[in-house]
Amino acid sequence: QLVESGGGSVQAGGSLRVSCAASGYFYRTSCIGWFRQAPGKEREGVAVVYNRGGKTRYAASVNGRFTISQDNAKTTLYLQMNSLKPEDTAMYYCATNDELDGCLKMDFDYWGQGTQVTVS
Predict the structure, then answer these.
(1) Which residues neighbour 33 within 8 Å (Cβ) at sequence distance 6 or greater?
(2) Mean per-residue pLDDT for 78-94?
(3) Per-residue pLDDT at 41 exceeds 90
(4) Cα dist. 98→1, 27, 29, 30, 34 in Å?
(5) Is the CB of residue 92 less than 8 Å from the CB of residue 80?
């Protein structure tokens, strides 16, 4: 089970860090990451880490502002979000994919319940 936390409301230009309790998922999936979805908009892959090798990848819309990371014990995934913009407002989901093909497209097939991030 993936459990997100840390969402909230912040003013534009501010920072927020969301977390995901993901014990075990770093080892049995091809990738773990974050996607977001705003009302009326399509799901957007935001950031991903490939579990073999640890390489990371970001959507162009967040590159340079967001950082994906994990704790040393590989039980928790983080997304540090800086220089937040109103267009970053969305529900953020921690998610995984067992298949590398899906990971390469930042597409996920399992996710948690999400945490809301609101930027005003």
Answers:
(1) 45, 46, 47, 48, 49, 68, 77, 94, 95, 96, 103, 106, 108
(2) 98
(3) yes
(4) 14, 10, 4, 5, 15
(5) no
Report the alpha-carbon distance of residue 27 to residue 42 in Å, rounded: 29
C-alpha 73, offset from chain centre? 18
Give residue 118's pLDDT: 98
Query: d(Cα 113, Cα 43) in Å, to the nearest integer?
Result: 14
Q: How far apart are CA 15 and CA 10, in angstroms?
A: 7
Closest CA to 108 of 59, 70, 40: 59
- Residue 45: is its pLDDT beyond 90? yes
Angle made by CA atoms 73, 2, 107, in degrees to the nearest 5: 100
Cβ-contact 59, 46 below 8 angstroms: yes
Bridge-based pairing state of the strands 76-81 and 90-97: unpaired
